[in-house]
Amino acid sequence: MFLRRLRSNRYPVAVATGLFAVLYVAGSLSLLAVLACVVAVIAAFGAAPVGIVAASPEERQPEVPLAHDRKRSDVLLDSLPDPILLLDSEGTVRSLNAASRQVFNNTIQPGSSALTRFRNPELLSMIKRALAGETPEPVEIVERYPIERWFQAAIVALPAEWEDDEPFLLYLRDLSEMHRLDRMRSDFIANASHELRTPLASLSGFIETLSGPARNDATARDRFLAIMQEQANRMSRLIDDLLSLSRLETASGRTEFQLLNIAEVLRHVAASLASQVEEVDVTLNVDFDAVEDPGCRVRGSRDELIQVFSNLLENAIRYAATGKMIDFHAERVDDGGAQSVRVIVRDYGPGIAEDHIPRLTERFYRVDVESSRAKKGTGLGLAIVKHILTRHRGRLSISSVPGRGASFVATLPTEPVHEASGRQKRR
What we know:
Blueprint: H1 2-8, H2 10-26, H3 31-47, H4 66-79, E1 84-87, E2 93-96, H5 98-103, H6 114-117, H7 121-131, E3 139-143, E4 149-157, E5 168-174, H8 176-211, H9 218-250, E6 258-260, H10 262-272, H11 274-279, E7 283-287, E8 298-300, H12 302-319, E9 325-335, E10 338-347, H13 369-374, H14 381-391, E11 395-400, E12 406-413, H15 417-426
Parallel strand pairs: 7-9
Antiparallel strand pairs: 1-2, 1-5, 3-4, 4-5, 6-8, 9-10, 10-12, 11-12
Helix pairs in contact: 1-3, 2-3, 8-9, 9-14, 10-12, 12-14
């Protein structure tokens, strides 16, 4: 405040100092007297109210009540999506924004010390260096409570004009999503490599055996060739699913959608998989009457939706042997005010434990790896289903009771035919 007052009254201070200098040159005052007078003037104007002399137009600013200014600052901080904490010179939290309270689950409160709340050595070192007057570089930290989150932390000293005792701002940029995607990408590469390496190793071993000890063994050759064919088919299915995922990601937003009769799509899927149903001696209960209405149409890609329901039905066929029955139904529902179609694929097989359900749509995730491979699963089917439904503004929900089967429900928004035709005419 002293410097602000002195700067505001710099012109009279300069005039007085110049006058004393003239008196010193003229011999009217000694050097010691001039210095004493200058110090007295500086002290007087430094203690005087700001703007005792009219300020220049660019310096004139309307006075804002401190409470109003503080409230405005709090609103601005609360509008930011990342956690921000204001610290005093001792590292005590004086205030924090709404994102901080949400991210840290109210474990940080005004009056608590940032030096005791955080345990990360790099973060503590950065805060201590800032409190000591240094300018530390940002650091990357991980917070494991209440959930695991990654942050890039930075601390800056606020301007001297900051009125309250909050000279430091601690900013935490949330990097959790970026780390999650990086981890997913690396896991995907590792899993894909493993899934491809297994059949390749099997093929390589059998080829080596057939080229050597079993060269003239007709029985072994026929048995090994059958296994090699099975492994080659497995690798082919895996590559096809990987290519499907790649096409879906690169074609996102560019595929030409059209109005589809969802009942016709579902009937096509049921007919194409009828032979597989017969092979496992399972009863397929089909009911699409509720979506036969000509006014009930879904906008999307026919091939992609066939892939969705084929994957779901094939999944049910693999695990329906114990229940001997599959329900394949469709119905119209009001989904949050929007008319939608809900397609249910339910098997009566062994079911799925609750802790596995949230991860079923992850790439290469399997409840039972050996059982899935034995049933010719690639671990990518439900990931493809989820991706396609998301592109069609739909969603997939899964429920199951162990021992009583599982239900896979795909929900898609419908589009009345008259609205679509009207839009086509306007185009």
